[in-house]
Amino acid sequence: MSILFKSGTIVTMSEGRDIIWDGSLYVEGDRIVEVGKTADLVPKYEAKADRVVDATHRVLYPGFLNIHCHSTLLACRGRAEDASNWDAIWGIMASISEAMTPEDAYMASMLAHVEMLKSGVTTVVDSGSHMIRAGDAAVDSGIRAFLHQTFRDADPVKIKEQGIYEYIPAIGDQGLQRAVELVEKFQGQDRGRIQCLMGPHATDVCSPDLLQRARREADRLGVGVTIHLAQNDVEPQQCKDAWGDWPGRMMEKAGLLGPDFIGAHAIFLNDEDIAVLARNHCSVSHNAQINAKRAHIAPVSDMIEAGINVGLGTDNMFYDIIEVMKVAQIAWRLRGGDPTQPAPETVLEMASINGSRALGMQDQVGSLEAGKLADVIMINYNRPRYTPRVQENVISNLIHFGTSNDVEMTVVGGRILVEDFTYIGGDEEAIVDQAQQSGAEVWARAREDWSRRMAKRKK
Fold first, then answer.
1. I need a labelling partner for 171 at 20 to 30 A (CA). Which of 32, 160, 236, 429 fits?
2. C-alpha distances in angstroms, 297 versus 14, 145, 269, 394?
């Protein structure tokens, strides 16, 4: 269909960072045709548009990009937020993942995608348990997705039960094969809306040999690479002890790094790691909200100053990118002690054009410009929290005071998925009900493992 958004404010995120006051935007099919002043566009397009959306008192933004997420781990919500990274990963999340069926994963992913779309996320990098069904959820929900199956060759049972790292090639072989199968099934589905990445799990649980093989498969399949990077303080030391290098140099030697590489978290990086990522033109997903919950702040300003492209991710149990933007700004200011840095505009760049660069899609998404994919969100600024509205405070009001409850419409590739603050790509109420039922069943199964582990600790 063709859609004309008229009489709104348009935050384009174009190279000039233009903001159009009393602007309009015209979409045909899955592409933006023209962006400009209302006085110029309405006479050209209003009569021919299938749908005219009055954007008065609204602000149009490019769809946000969530470049690190585990949608299936929505099922952990309310359990894994008050734990260390180590306990959350190897205790709580491992138990939840083992307790999930493929259908549980599908329902968790569907609800996570609905939450993302309602917070303005139009593109997500997603991994988790039972990724075939999670991929099916991405197809069905309408979100733009980059899927990846994580894999490792360190024995997870020994890490979970004894804290011992033992690298077993057969475990890596099986995981890598599943990752390849996911790419072969989903890459390019729905005219490219669904794409894939190669996703070795983390630098401490993957040997250099497995990382080399991951890069070879990524290059063969024509996909990028992502990995959990320095997300806890155990990880860098394990790399140094096992392989003689800190994570950055270890990955560089394995040939994993490049412009198509995204490192997630990047909390415990040292100066050498940052320099390695910068000289290889890598990107990082700053997962500010979950990091802060676990009492960590990543060195974002150091990474950006070094030349690393930094986007934003929600990570686990939480899928509201507007809240992540807010925390990202606060955490950066707390770490740096400067109440002026980062500017709100910098945070918005991380959620939009920087995310698109990380995925090699800067010519397709991340800004509102003619010829780009019609990934558009409309936020209702006719609210007390945004008042007064003047051109100088449009972005700062969103970063400081905004909420996902104000996302009135979300469009992915010209398809309206959220309208009047409600997900209309499917039955939102039914999705919530089904996710509740399956989630409760997963918790019931996971409690057995949690109880066993607690009993073992007491002994």
1. 236
2. 29, 27, 11, 27
pTM of the predicted model as reported, rounded to 2 decimal places: 0.96
According to the model, what pLDDT value does residue 137 have?
A: 98
Exposed, middle or buried by CB within 10 Å (0-12, 13-18, 19+), for 396? middle
Instruction: List for the chain the helix, strand, coil content (%; round to 5).
Output: 45, 25, 30
Rounded Cα–Cα distance for residues 438 and 442 (Å): 6
Helices (H), 47-188: 85-87, 94-99, 102-118, 131-141, 156-162, 169-186
State the Cα–Cα distance between residues 272 and 236, nearest whole angstrom. 12
Question: Which residues are registered as beta bridge partners of 284?
Answer: 263, 310
Strand, helix or coil at 426? coil
Please list the rounded mean pLDDT of every run of 10 residues in the chain (459 residues). 97 97 98 98 98 98 98 91 84 88 96 98 95 97 98 92 93 97 97 98 97 98 98 95 97 98 97 98 97 94 98 95 98 96 98 98 98 98 95 96 98 98 98 97 87 63
Burial of 134 (0-12, 13-18, 19+ CB in 10 A): buried
Token code pair at residue 153: 């060759």
What the block records as the tokens of 139 is 């197809």
The pLDDT value given to residue 447: 87
DSSP string, 196-222: EEEEE-BTTTS-HHHHHHHHHHHHHHT
Give every CB contact of residue 271 below 8 A, 6+ residues apart in sequence. none
If 0-12 CB within 10 Å is exposed, 13-18 middle and 19+ buried, where does residue 143 land?
Answer: buried
Contacts of 457 (CB under 8 A, 6+ apart): none
Domains of the chain (ranges plus CATH)? 2-62+368-423 (2.30.40.10), 64-358 (3.20.20.140)
Q: What does the pLDDT read at residue 161?
A: 83
Q: Which long-range contacts (CB under 8 A, 24 or more apart) does 91-96 make?
A: 91/160, 91/450, 91/453, 92/450, 93/316, 94/156, 94/160, 95/446, 95/449, 95/450, 95/453, 96/442, 96/443, 96/446
